[in-house]
Write a structure and sequence with these properties.
With 217 residues, the protein is α+β, with helices and mostly antiparallel strands. The protein has a single domain (18-213), classed as Alpha-Beta Plaits (2-Layer Sandwich). Helices cover 52% and strands 12% of the residues. It contains twelve helices and four strands, in the order H-E-H-H-E-H-H-H-H-E-H-H-H-E-H-H. It has helices at 2-21, 31-35, 39-48, 63-69, 75-87, 96-100, 105-120, 135-143, 156-160, 165-170, 185-195, 209-213; strands spanning 23-29, 52-59, 125-132, 179-181. Strands 2-3-1-4 form a four-stranded antiparallel beta sheet. Helix 5 crosses helix 7 (105-120). The longest helix is centred in the first third of the chain and has 20 residues, at 2-21. The protein is elongated, with a radius of gyration of 20 Å. The two termini are 33 Å apart. The mean pLDDT is 93. Bound molecules: adenosine-5'-diphosphate and magnesium ion. Adenosine-5'-diphosphate binds at residues 80-81, 84-85, 112, 116, 146, 165, 168-169, 174-175, 177, 180, 183.
Length: 217
């Protein structure tokens, strides 16, 4: 009996570990990243980390897909965009109302959503699905934080952009931060379904997986 229970536990555990190793996330080189010739550099960083690219395509997204991608009907998410803009003014000696025309988080968030739709359609994007150990958090780490001027050096956003909401919003545009990555499991699932609906997600092993994930000593 005890042995059977142990077997059940082992197989559940094995399944969980399999899922951790095969976690999938969605990410995208945004139009500014493509136009600056950074696709290869970004793919290199993803591949070098040991993650696998299991689907990829280049497209100019239509308005419909962008509106589904960014949850503009989610008030908390829209307000968070506004918050990011307001908090980015700290230390810049700029007045919130004078800079943005409002200090209302929702109003500012709505303005950002509008500019995001224009930004994402300003040229081709390279969309992909990336798989591997804790891929969602790993790709977010590679991306760095939303506001490039605050993103750590060594991250995609920190290394290749110095943009900030104070400048972006006065110029009535979204922050140009080169790269998108799903923030959590729910976003990853929705975004993969949205951008790769009915498309093949590939399955293969990297040569390095053998050394990384098998005990060979
Ligand atoms: P992330 O892309 O890091 O997940 P969000 O989901 O909060 O960040 O925002 C989506 C995108 O909207 C950002 O990547 C950025 O291009 C843009 N953005 C966010 N906040 C602002 C802001 N205050 N002003 C202008 N653009 C913004
Ligand atoms: Mg986000």
């Amino acid at each position: 009996m005890a042995k059977n229970n142990k077997q059940v536990y082992d197989s559940r555990l094995a399944k969980s570990v399999f899922n951790i190793k095969h976690q999938r996330t969605f990410c995208m080189v945004k139009p500014d990243g493509v136009m600056r010739g950074l696709v290869g550099e970004i793919l290199r960083r993803i591949e070098k980390s040991g993650l696998r690219i299991v689907a990829m395509k280049m497209l100019v997204p239509n308005q419909e897909i962008i509106k589904k991608h960014y949850p503009a009907s989610d008030e908390a998410w829209v307000k968070r965009l506004g918050d990011k803009g307001i908090s980015a003014l700290e230390g810049l000696n700029l007045d919130v109302v004078e800079t943005y025309g409002t200090d209302d988080r929702r109003e500012l968030g709505d303005m950002v959503v509008k500019s995001l739709i224009e930004y994402m359609q300003s040229g081709p994007c390279v969309a992909m699905v990336v798989e591997g150990v804790q891929a969602i958090d790993m790709v977010r780490k590679l991306a760095g934080s939303t506001i490039p001027s605050q993103a750590e050096m060594g991250t995609i956003r920190g290394d290749f952009s110095v943009d900030t909401p104070a400048v972006a919003n006065v110029e009535k545009r979204a922050i140009h931060n080169i790269f998108h990555a799903s923030e959590n499991a729910a976003e990853a699932e929705n975004e993969i379904k949205l951008w790769f609906a009915g498309e093949k997600i590939h399955d293969y092993s990297l040569a390095g997986d053998e050394v990384m994930y098998n005990k060979h000593y």
